[in-house]
Amino acid sequence: MSVAAIKIAQKQLALPDQEYRQLLIGLTGKASSTQLTAEESRRVLHELHRRLATRPKTPTESKLWALWLDLCQYLPEAERNPEYFVGMDNRASGAAIHIVYELAELTPKQAYKAIEALKDRRDFEAAKAAPVPF
């Protein structure tokens, strides 16, 4: 695990430096991520990601997730993953997010485009899956 991944997660959580250091000391006994072993880095990153996953979501994030979960019922198994979700949002919005935790950083215009693209794709897939009346 890299120090950069830990620092990115710290930034996404808006975790103050003092609280971040307390977390490091509590989990590893070390006050700097540069001193961590690979196992300690994994433990810290796991805890930071757990905190990210349980933080309250913005209304925009909630809408994007609801549409995504609705769309997933129509997608092949290979496309039901966070990377595909982020890729769809990037193509639709023109954003350059890398992980689902960054959805909150979309501008209102980017979020609108991503929401509309998810709606269109959901409607297209639902129509494709509907039985043909004969």
Description:
- With 134 residues, the protein is mainly α.
- It has two domains: 3-54, no CATH class; 59-129, no CATH class.
- The protein is built from six helices and no strands.
- It has helices spanning 3-13, 17-28, 38-54, 59-72, 82-93, 108-129.
- α1 (3-13) packs parallel to α3, α4 runs parallel beside α6 (108-129) and α5 (82-93) crosses α6.
- The model has no long low-confidence stretch (mean pLDDT 87).
Produce the secondary structure layout.
Elements: H1 3-13, H2 17-28, H3 38-54, H4 59-72, H5 82-93, H6 108-129
Helix pairs in contact: 1-3, 4-6, 5-6
Key features of this structure:
134 residues, mainly alpha, 0% strand
Number of helices: 6
* CA-based shape: elongated
- Strand tally: 0
Whole-number mean pLDDT: 87
Order of helices and strands: HHHHHH
Q: What is the gyration radius calculated from CA atoms?
A: 19 Å
What would a concise description of this structure say?
The chain has 134 residues and is mostly helical.
